[in-house]
Amino acid sequence: MLIEWTLNGRPMRSEVSPFQRLLDYLRTDLKLLGTKEGCREGKCGACTVWVDGQIANACLMLMGQLAHKEVTTIEGINEKDRFTPLQEAFLTNSALECGFCIPGMLMTGTALLHQNTNPSRLEIRESLKGHLCACTGYQKILDSIEGVGLPPASEGQARMRVRKP
Ligand code: FES
Ligand code: FES
């Protein structure tokens, strides 16, 4: 079937099998490898993308569901090839080890911050309950999202909305 959809801000017309998983279309057909393949059962969060601005597991979405939808992947969240404030926070806090889970964490963390610019620690934990990380112990990931959510101490520090380690 032919679907019209939007991917990372670009209008797309794609001939697809309606039963192909979005995860496979992204990684195999489009070579967009930032969206990771983990459990393929909706349990690990590694494949998290946004569909119409809401987080979704790409392993559970079928291409046939995406007509006229807007999909954003980790490759699409940067402005002008710069790191987002949350990406900078992950780097500053060293909130990654192998990095496998991080694109999904960034998609969910960014979506949370779009909805709530100053989430509580509990709200951040709740938002990440669908994500598994084998490496970090989560604390630095939580610190990073919380740090970006904190209001800047002064106007001059607005760009550095990152908690110091
Ligand atoms: S690969 Fe999709 S949730 Fe694990
Ligand atoms: S940093 Fe390795 S799985 Fe999270």
Structural descriptors:
single chain, 165 residues, alpha+beta, Ubiquitin-like (UB roll), DNA polymerase, domain 1, 2 domains, 5-stranded mixed sheet, 5 helices, 5 strands, 14% strand, globular, disordered C terminus, binds FE2/S2 (inorganic) cluster
Molecular structure report:
The chain is of the alpha+beta class. It folds into two domains: 2-76, Beta-grasp domain (Ubiquitin-like (UB roll)), CATH 3.10.20.30; 85-157, DNA polymerase, domain 1 (Orthogonal Bundle). It contains five helices and five strands, in the order ββαβββαααα. The chain has a five-stranded mixed β-sheet, with helices on one face. The longest helix has 14 residues, at 102-115. The radius of gyration is 16 Å and the shape is globular. The termini are far apart. The relative contact order is 0.16. The site of one FE2/S2 (inorganic) cluster has 12 residues, from loops.
Quick gist of this model?
The chain has 165 residues and is α+β, with helices and mostly antiparallel strands.
Chain-wise SSE layout:
Layout: E1 2-7, E2 10-15, H1 22-29, E3 48-51, E4 54-57, E5 70-72, H2 85-92, H3 102-115, H4 121-127, H5 139-149
Helix pairs in contact: 2-5, 3-5
This protein binds FE2/S2 (inorganic) cluster (2 copies).
